[in-house]
Amino acid sequence: MEKRWAQAPARRDQLALFAESLDEAIPAGHPIRLVERCLHLVDWTAWESRYASRRGQPPIHPRLMAGCILYGLMRGIRSSRQLEDATRERVDFMWFLERRTVDHSTFAEFRVLFSKELKGLNRQIGRLICERYAEALLALVIDGTRLRANSDRHGARTAEHLERMVSACVRELDKKLEQLGQEDEKPAEAREVQGLREEIEKLRAQVAHYEQVLEVARCRDAAKRKKGGAGATAVRVPVTDPDAQVTPNKEGGFAPNFTPVVAVDPVSRLIVSGDVLAGSDENTAVLPAVAAAESLGGTAPERVLADTGFAAGDNLETLEEQGIEAYMPTSTDFSERNPANRSDPSQPVPEATWGELPKRGKQLAGAAFVYDASNDCYYCPMGRRLTRARGGKYADSGVAYTQYTCPGKAGCPLAGDCVKEKASARMIVRDQYQGIRETVGRRMATPEGRAIYQKRAPVVEGVFAEIKHVLGIRRFLLRGLEKVRTEWTWICTAFNLKRLLRLLASPRAAQGTRAENNSNVPRNPGVNESSAHALDAVERVQWTVRTPGVLRTLLSRWIGRHRRPTTTHTCVIAETG
User: Fold this and answer.
1) Beta strands, E only, 419-560
2) Is residue 530 located within the same domain as residue 552?
């Protein structure tokens, strides 16, 4: 029996009586339709004001340019050339742009020009999301991750190596300049001279770049020696992108990375703010994130959840002054399982529980010592008093501290686990922020505190998982800290827009079958309750054909005879006077 194969609904060269429009090619519930409707609710005045009136071809509206980049991020289309191809080949991009085509250089220039306006767009999308949650922005979860920089992991160099690279380039530049002088003294072809001058300009730019990287390497070496002493190893700086830092990868190994940080609302899963740190010190992101949440919601959040890297003393103190509860590990242990937490710290800890005392490495941790504020002293697990010895300020931060020492390790049964081998007594250092750390530690030790903090990881790690695994973003495309920050803002805005589309993907929100003409869609410069009603409106298109009744009958009969079984044709012909 001869095999049969499925037949095509229509040949490529077959003519159609009624040409299919782009609008018919996009299903009613397609995400690009929701993207179009959402972006019409945003005020684009700030974007439009950046365009200067000039002669020539009018520019494409920033709503369309930004929409392509955001929709491309949601679909895994990131690079400028991929976006250019999408505007020429993908039906959803053609529908959104109404068959406009955009060059890759236009996309590349657009994505780095509107960093300030892009943050405003993200805030407007955030307000649309928060309107749908009664308890939005009452808490804030902050965390950071690592994304690869657009730099070769084998291209990092030390300051010593960079000095040799600069010297080699300078020698080559001197040779080219000498050769150019000889060419000027004798007749030569203009093409050869022009090529030589281009090589000289490239060498000058290369020398300037290497000198910039060398300065970065020297600064990082000085900072590392200040912290770790004169014997600290030399820092390796990525030559391609010196703003990146060689840090451990999440999956193992080392590579040039950036440290992006997000602040997430645990109720709506909205990225309230996003930033890329200049270094790896994550605690600098806490207060700007709180300010962003207050700007978005009108009031400061009630709680802030973060890991140990964000629990700097000045952050905890500022949050406490603003009436915000911090839930962050602070290297304290006020839980019931710590035997050092006893009603009378002057009494020794029972010997049976010595093995349960908190340790840091092989030595008893600071959480094994209890501070008595009334007497300004510490008590060790054996009930001995550590008295105030001396105080001072740290040279790098200016933070005040006080040292407390015990009477000595002689005769102490815990001396082997408490005092270092070459030391004669145990010393505890208490800085000016230790009191607020203990307050936060006691809050974290309560059942309510533990329950609240357990919500941190699922919320923020889920956001990073979606960005990395679903959106496929594991490295930055741009170079330089400012451009990388702008790229991260695009990524966070695309995440929030995708979150908003999920909220709107309801039966009422997906009723529209055809998009109205862009010029007929009313624009709402603000973000208020009317926005939600506008998104639920049903889109309608009425096709009217002025034709006699006889022609209407003939067309209907012809379509009924010639339509294929696998294809559904709908033709609405209204006879008007």
Assistant:
1) 427-431
2) no
Co-location of 546 and 526 in the same domain: no
Residue 519 — φ and ψ, nearest 5°? -70, -20
Q: How confident is the model at residue 560 (pLDDT cuts 50, 70, 90)?
A: low
Both tokens of 105, joined, read 């250089």
Structural domain that includes position 573: 542-577
Amino acid at 79: S
Q: Looking at the predicted structure, is the pLDDT value of residue 533 above 80? A: no
Instruction: Specify whether the backbone of 216 is left (phi greater than 0), alpha (psi in -120 to 50) or beta.
Output: alpha
Q: At which of 238, 268, 289 does a domain end?
A: 238
Asked if residue 52 belongs to a domain, the reply is yes
What span, in angstroms and rounded, lies between the C-alpha atoms of 246 and 292?
A: 29
Rg (CA), the chain: 33
E-assigned strands of 380-445?
385-393, 400-405, 427-431
How far is residue 84's CA from residue 102's CA, in Å, rounded to a whole number? 6
Q: 380, 408, 431 — which closes off a domain?
A: 431
Could you tell me how far CA 491 lies from the centroid of its own chain? 6
Give per-residue pLDDT as tens, 393-442.
998 889 999 999 999 888 899 999 999 888 999 999 999 999 999 999 99
pTM confidence score: 0.82
CA distance 320 to 312: 13
Residue with tokens 């006077």: 577
End-to-end CA, the chain: 59
3-state secondary structure 431-458: ECCHHHHHHHHHHHHCHHHHHHHCCHHH
Asked whether residue 224 is assigned to any structural domain, the reply reads yes
Domain count, the chain: 4
